[in-house]
Specification:
Shape: globular
Largest sheet: 7 strands, antiparallel
Distance between the termini: 29 Å
Radius of gyration: 18 Å
Helix content: 25-40%
Strand content: 35-45%
Order of helices and strands: HHHHEEEEEEEEEEEEEH
Number of helices: 5
Number of strands: 13
């Protein structure tokens, strides 16, 4: 099930994040994990271990795909309902269907920028027009039971107020509670790699998605990688990290 680096990463996840931590402590702990595992010289060891077939390549391939927000998502360690450690490969101007969407997550999250640069905006719901903000359409996002495709149900008009803008270069990290509304994108000319962790004992069944870009389809299919494609993607990621 695991080579040496996979086992080390699993132990770190369990030791740091298991237990019923309050969310603010969980967020801080998650940030410390990605900061430890995320530097390119450390992450490449884990990715190389996985590319050799360590871990669970078949299970991880099934949950690796091009994300609707515009990045390639490679699951590295599946810790069941508590921990999901992934590598995200972002491409500038991907043109993905959900690239401009503001959203939140099912669990607390933390992300470390391994190479390239990421920009992020934080938002809050502004209530009615008197509260200011920009108009948007709100959707409730859930996963279909049979395929885990994204399902989007319209939930009416909304307004969003921008509260913070940040830019994260290689070597920086951030962490957010599950309900935090945000939008992130690659603003570098080179591919951007982030190490991403979702964690916590309780996952929300739905997330909120806000868009000003027009109607979304009711369902968006996930197209998972095959095992061979997954291992090739890991080898490509290792080569990219070696050149960071």
């Amino acid at each position: 099930m695991g080579g040496r680096q996979v086992l080390r990463a699993r132990r770190l996840l369990t030791r740091t994040l298991d237990g019923d931590l309050p969310e603010h402590e969980l967020v801080a702990a998650a940030r410390s994990v990605v900061a430890e595992l995320g530097p390119a010289e450390r992450l490449v060891e884990l990715v190389t271990d996985l590319a050799s077939g360590a871990g669970d390549p078949r299970g991880c391939a099934r949950l690796s795909y091009r994300h609707v927000l515009g990045f390639d998502k490679l699951l590295l360690i599946d810790g069941g309902p508590r921990h999901m450690l992934r590598a995200h490969l972002w491409h500038h101007g991907s043109g993905a269907i959900g690239e401009e969407d503001v959203h939140n997550h099912r669990s607390a999250l933390a992300s470390y920028v391994v190479r390239g640069r990421l920009s992020m905006e934080l938002y809050e719901a502004a209530g009615d027009a008197a509260g200011g903000g920009v108009p948007a359409t709100r959707y409730e996002e859930s996963l279909s039971g049979g395929t885990a495709d994204w399902l989007l149900s319209p939930a009416g008009p909304a307004r969003l107020r921008l509260t913070q803008v940040g830019q994260y270069a290689a070597g920086s990290a951030y962490a957010l509670p599950a309900h935090t509304l945000h939008r992130a994108w690659c603003d570098a000319d080179v591919p951007t790699v982030t190490l991403f962790l979702e964690t916590g004992p309780r996952r929300r069944p739905r997330t909120d998605v806000f868009t000003a870009a027009g109607p979304h389809p009711a369902a968006v299919a996930k197209v998972p990688l095959g095992v061979d494609d997954y291992l090739r993607a890991l080898n490509g990621l290792a080569e990219l990290l070696t050149g960071s």
